[in-house]
Design a protein that fits this description.
Layout (H helix, E strand, L loop, with lengths): L4 E5 L5 H11 L4 E5 L3 H7 L14 H8 L4 E4 L2 H7 L2 E4 L19 H13 L4 E5 L7 H12 L5 E5 L9 H6 L4 E5 L3 H14 L8 E5 H32 L3 H9 L20 H14 L3 H28 L8 E5 L14 H11 L3 E5 L5 H11 L4 H7 E3 L3 H5 L4 E4 L11 H6 L6 E4 L6 H7 L2 E3 L4
Parallel strand pairs: 1-2, 1-4, 2-3, 4-5, 5-6, 7-8, 9-10, 9-12, 10-11, 12-13, 13-14
Helix pairs in contact: 1-3, 5-6, 9-11, 9-12, 11-12, 12-13
The structure holds uridine-5'-diphosphate-xylopyranose and adenosine-5'-diphosphate.
Enzyme class: oxidoreductase
Function: Catalyzes the conversion of UDP-glucose into UDP-glucuronate, one of the precursors of teichuronic acid.
Organism: Flavobacterium stagni
């Protein structure tokens, strides 16, 4: 029997877009996305589809088309669980902030709560799919909870990690490089795998649907993110060397990227990687390695994070030292706050840490980001607990207009590579700034020669 009803617990950056695409591609499947967060669900149901809580190019169109037909958003978690044949768990798995593994291990409390809820509510057999990125062998823990606290119904656990990148989520979901499904090796496990394969086969060619055992699937997700993050830290390490030697990191990246064994992608030097996955997943990998006594493996991967922290910190220090060793009372304008372009997500964004460093130096910061709200910026800074919320309030201002944001600034720092920054009237911005007018381009987004011609004192990364 094929799957006709799916429920997804968690309506976030992964659950929302993934389910919208499944609903869009599988009109015969009823897809219900549930979340405890009432405000989030209300926004997914907003009659004006532009107000959905996740900004992704192409997403609102897909939601508009499927919503109310076979795609539903609800806070009625129990009902949706009981009705579905297949339940995706797509809740957040932040890094632990307390107890054993603090600052490293994934906090699985939301996952465990979901498992307990499914066990309590389910009255028919279910296939439970891990969508959230999880430490290796979490499936085993979920299975234990389900089997020992359930109502005697059968549960099959699958691991189906999501490889979408934010900003290109819809594109990645519609045409994934691969879909990975891990499951039990026994007959029941293989049947469950087959049912999920059938769902994806509605639009993904079968040779791109990979099936493995559970542990390989879980570890592959952590490994993929670790390798990607490692590339960014590697090129960022070289960027610092370029600044000392007179080499240009863009030229180096191009030269090495043309080697087909290395490849050109993910070699853009930057102010540092952010996002909800890279740091968390590497910390997780480090924690797992340590817990098996593999100290060298742990140290090797931890260095990727150390390098990234160094890159963010180095950017802030460069601003301070270039502005004659003091930014106290100076207006510094941030263009961009999101962790990358084309998303409103700010989790672990480099901007947060650079701002924190500069606020410690008593700078006044103005921020313009096309998609991030003032409330989000405040909440990101307050979350660090470096300063009181009212102090953050006074020291940082968000603007709705980039030209206003840059007016009377001592310096501009580019933190996100939004395309629109390239087409600004930079002469107009220069004219309205204090002189000398500094630009610190944390994304190597602008044309250095043109900026210098206008009169800016311009510094990119790695040149
Ligand atoms: C990542 C993985 O790419 C994706 O497969 C996984 O499912 C989730 O984690 P995401 O975090 O959404 O996706 O974005 P990604 O494009 O990977 O960028 C992560 C960070 O690295 C961003 O801050 C980005 O600006 C930075 N980055 C990326 C660079 O600084 N240079 C690069 O060359 C590439
Ligand atoms: P991701 O980027 O992995 O999608 P998000 O933090 O954006 O992560 O989304 C996770 C969502 O899961 C949040 O909206 C949160 O409210 C929801 N959530 C967490 N635990 C539960 C639960 N037990 N039941 C329903 N929703 C949950």
């Amino acid at each position: 029997m094929s799957i006709t009803s799916i429920c997804c617990i968690g309506a976030g950056y992964v659950g929302g877009p993934t389910m919208a695409v499944i609903a869009h591609k599988c009109p015969h499947i009823k897809v219900t996305v549930v979340d405890l967060n009432e405000e989030r669900i209300a926004r997914w149901n907003d009659p004006n589809v532009e107000n959905i809580p996740v900004y992704e190019p192409g997403l609102s169109e897909i939601v508009a088309q499927a919503r109310g037909k076979n795609l539903f958003f609800s806070t009625q978690v129990d009902e949706a669980i009981d009705e579905a044949q297949m339940i995706f768990i797509s809740v957040n798995t932040p890094t632990k902030t307390y107890g054993a593994g603090k600052g490293m291990a994934a906090d699985l409390k939301y996952i465990e709560l979901c498992a307990r809820q499914i066990a309590r509510v389910a009255t028919t057999d279910k296939i439970v799919v891990e969508k959230s990125t999880l430490p290796v062998r979490t499936a085993e823990a979920i299975k234990n909870i389900l089997d020992n606290t359930g109502n005697g119904v059968q549960f099959q656990i699958l691991s189906n990690p999501e490889f979408l990148a934010e900003g290109t989520a819809v594109e990645d979901l519609l045409a994934p490089d691969r879909v990975l499904i891990g499951g039990g090796t026994d007959e029941a496990g293989q049947i469950a795998i087959k049912k999920l394969v059938e769902v994806y086969a509605n639009w993904v060619p079968s040779h791109q649907i990979l099936t493995t055992n559970l542990w390989s699937s879980e570890l592959s997700k952590l490994t993929a993110n670790a390798f990607l993050a490692q590339r960014v830290s590697s090129i960022n390490a070289i960027s610092e060397l370029c600044e000392k030697t007179g080499a240009n990191v863009n030229e180096v990246a191009k030269a090495i990227g043309m080697d087909s064994r290395i490849g050109p992608k993910f070699l853009k030097a930057s102010v540092g990687f952010g996002g909800s996955c890279f740091q968390k997943d590497i910390l997780n990998l480090v924690y797992i390695a340590k817990s098996f006594g593999l100290q060298e493996v742990a140290d090797y991967w931890e260095q990727v994070i150390i390098m990234n922290d160094h890159q963010k910190n180095r950017f802030a220090r460069k601003i301070v030292s270039t502005l004659y060793n003091t930014v106290s009372g100076k207006k510094i304008t941030f263009l961009g706050w999101a962790f990358k372009k084309d998303t409103n997500d700010t989790r672990e964004s480099a901007a947060i840490y650079v701002a924190d460093d500069l606020l410690n130096e008593q700078a006044q910061i103005a921020v313009y980001d096309p998609k991030v709200s003032a409330r989000q910026i405040q909440s990101d800074l307050n979350y660090l607990e470096t300063r009181l919320p009212e102090e953050n309030d006074k020291a940082i201002e968000s603007c709705n207009d980039p030209y206003e944001a840059c007016k009377n600034a001592h310096a501009i720092a580019i933190l996100t590579e939004w395309d629109e920054f390239k087409s600004y009237d930079w002469q107009r911005i220069y004219d309205a700034m204090l002189k000398p007018a500094f630009v610190f381009d944390g994304r190597n987004l602008l044309d250095a020669d043109k900026m210098k011609e206008i009169g800016f004192l311009y510094q990119g990364i790695g040149s």
